[in-house]
Design brief:
Elements (H helix, E strand, L loop, with lengths): L5 H30 L4 H11 L17 H12 L8 H22 L3 E2 L2 E2 L1 H5 L1 H20 L8 H28 L7 H26 L6 H25 L2 H4 L5 H4 L5 H9 L3 H8 L9 H11 L1 H22 L4 H16 L3
Antiparallel strand pairs: 1-2
Helix pairs in contact: 1-3, 1-4, 1-16, 3-4, 3-8, 3-16, 4-6, 4-7, 4-8, 7-8, 8-9, 9-15, 9-16, 12-13, 12-15, 15-16
Length: 351
């Protein structure tokens, strides 16, 4: 990754922090306005999942979502000279789609906790969790229609609906592959990258490209799409690294939690093809669940295979690709600054 001077880093960081806080609050206000209009029984579950309330409906102060996709959407709109306030409904739609995918993912992964709290399906059952996810998809579609009230044309709304729906289709394709990989040990790195390009990167790419499009930067949309896709790849691979080697105080998960759940993340896929001890790793992954006592062995196998370095090198490569697309878009460096800082911070994050 290209080194930046201290002053440039500080300028980029300040710009990102200002935008991150203000834009996040604006998107949350937009979401609250939509969610609070839902019937009370549904509203309580939605607010619980978003981290705004506990299971008894009491306001809570705790860890909530990062709002990465919606903030990226707003900053992409701003970068091409668009009006951020005008596209808050589409930013909310992106957050709704992302969160419905988390609710459904928790069911499919049989995850009992998210951010240290019981998952929606664990508290309200699988059937209601599926229903809540579907309800969020309906809210996302309605959110896009609200763009009309902000002065955007029917053509722009239809285009946004098409982009978001295609991203949802790719997300489902990626989830299908992810589930299929659970019982296989012959997955290649290329297979894995193809899967996360759909499951994770597609929605992040849509966030950036929709932002550029609605900001009246039609000629820059493809560059922003590729910027978002590369950033999404870097984001997911960094998440994979933290799932094995992350610090619990920062990630909220125990070290090796992804290994305990037998997730086929990039470090594991790499080690299964490159490690001299891959037979031992295969035996561990043939179990229904990897016991805590086996986690150090699995981590050692990954360490000795070079999986961590390989994965982080890919993170940095995708980050370079993202920044290259941003540069090719022709957007001025001052307008690029928040997006560039987000790219760097996501590639180096610890939570």
């Amino acid at each position: 990754m290209v080194k930046r001077g201290i002053k440039e880093q500080v300028r980029e960081l300040d710009a990102t922090l200002d935008a991150w806080t203000g834009y996040r609050n604006s998107v949350q206000n937009e979401l609250e306005g939509m969610i609070n209009g839902a019937p009370s029984s549904l509203r309580n579950i939605l607010r619980y999942h978003m981290g705004w309330e506990n299971e008894r409906g009491r306001i809570r102060q705790g860890k909530q979502g990062k709002f990465i996709r919606s903030i990226l959407h707003l900053l992409s709109c701003q970068a091409v000279g668009g009006d951020v306030a005008q596209v808050l409904p589409s930013a909310a739609a992106l957050e709704l789609v992302h969160n419905l995918s988390l609710i459904h993912d928790d069911i499919q992964d049989k995850s009992h906790q998210r951010h240290g709290r019981p998952t929606v399906w664990k508290l309200w059952g699988k059937s209601q969790a599926i229903n809540i996810g579907d309800f969020m998809f309906a809210l996302a579609s309605l959110a896009l229609l609200r763009l009309r009230d902000n002065g955007l044309s029917s053509e722009e709304i239809l285009h946004s609906l098409k982009v978001l729906t295609e991203a949802c289709k790719e997300l489902c394709e990626g989830q299908y592959l992810d589930i299929e990989f659970e019982d296989r040990v012959d997955i290649t790195v290329e297979d894995y990258l193809n899967m996360i390009r759909r499951k994770t990167a597609a929605l992040i790419a849509a966030s950036a490209s929709m932002g550029a499009y609605l900001g009246k930067g039609e000629e820059k949309v493809q560059h922003f799409h590729q910027f978002g896709e590369a950033l999404g790849m870097a984001y997911q691979i960094r998440d994979d690294i933290l799932g094995v080697w992350g610090v619990k105080k920062r990630t909220g998960k125990s070290m090796g939690e992804d290994l305990r759940q037998r997730k086929k993340t990039l470090p594991v896929v790499y080690a299964l093809s490159e490690s001299k001890d891959r037979a031992k790793l295969e035996r561990l992954y043939s179990k229904r669940r990897i016991d805590g006592g086996d986690i150090p062995l699995a981590v050692r196998i990954l360490d000795e295979s070079g999986a961590r370095d390989h994965s982080q090198n890919l993170v940095q490569e995708y980050c370079r690709q993202a920044l290259k697309q941003l540069e090719a878009s022709g957007v001025g460096r001052d307008r690029q600054a928040p997006l560039r800082q987000i790219a760097h911070s996501l590639a180096e994050r610890e939570n």
